[in-house]
Each structure stands twice: as C-alpha cells, then as structure tokens.
Design brief:
By secondary structure, the protein is α+β, with helices and mostly antiparallel strands. Helix content is 33%, strand content 25%. Helix 2 packs antiparallel against helix 3.
Amino acid sequence: MSALGERPVEPSAWAVERFGCQAGALAAAVPEQLAKAHGKAHAAHLAVGLKKRSPYGVALAGLVRENLAETARALGEAVRDVRGYEYAVINDHALFPYRYADRPRSLDRARLPANASPTRHRLFRAHGPQPPEGLFDIDEDLATEEYLGLHEAFEELGTSTRLVCVFFTADAENGIHAIHWGDARLEPDRTFTWPYREQLPVAPVRLE
C-alpha cells in the first residue's frame, strides 16, 4: 500500500488552506495509513495472546504516528521529534492523531484523559486554536509558572506551526470505525471545541 494513497481525493477548501498542494494526497493517505496501522496492531495483539486490549491500543498509537511520519517524508515534508514522539508536519501544520474511543462514539464526546501528559496539554494550548479573546484569562497574580508554560510553543515544531487533529475510534476486532480531522481547541474540562471539522472515509484493511 502506498504511503500516499492510490488515488488523491478532492480536498476541501479548509484542507487546501492548511496543507496547500499536498491536501489531496494527504486526505487520501490518512485513512490508508490508519488502516495499515490497525492491521499491524491487530497482528501484534494476536501474537501477544492476551485477552486484554492494551497491547492493541499501545501498538496502534505508535504505528499511527509512524505511518503519518512516513507519509510526511514521502511528500517531502517535515517530521519533528517532540519528547521522543515523531509528528508529521505538512505546510507548517502538525498532525496530532488521537484514538478517543475503542467503540463507535460521537466526536462531541471526545475527551482528553485525566492522566494526559503535560506535553499533550501544551501542544493544544500553544499550537491549537485559541479561545475567543478574554475567555479563560486569569489574573496575572494567579498565573503560575506551570500554567504559563502550557502556552509556550515547542521550538521543535516551530513557533508558527499549528495543530491539526486526526481523531478516530477503533478496536482490535472491528478496526477503524470513523476518522475526523480539523481544528480542535482543548477546553478546561478536557473536552474539545471544533472551530472546524470534517469526516474522512475509512479505508479497507489489507493484509500484507
């Protein structure tokens, strides 16, 4: 399976605005790379032989990141290392993949786990869409160094790089259920507000 997908799709105006001339190839590649990641994660899950689903989820998360990085390289775009994780960066937009549920579930119910790393919080605070002016501002006397640090951009990504989220649901038995990408703003209660989002098709899994 090609890292770029077999057939570029007609990208939306939003995708073209963010990814430029790579938008069509990327929109085709993302579903195929998620399907490819599921196939390998499912094989790893079976090889381990455990009834628990954790081997699948851990393998899938790593494979999705690797596959999107592979796509970026194939397109001649950048791959940046942030705290040991590679992120595909296309036209100054970093892809952030996240499996928000292990069963079909509305995107509106997506939520960042309570134990999510500070790196994830900082990626959203510094590189994601910003809240309307004045919303969630706090008094300077109350602003802790830790809180302010969440708004510092990662130099590894580039201060002008913006985050594009690739949210999906999947499980070991049924594969990828749904894929959404767009601009997601992380709210204080760990839910997400989407200034823009669209759904991508799910590609069939192909055994290699």
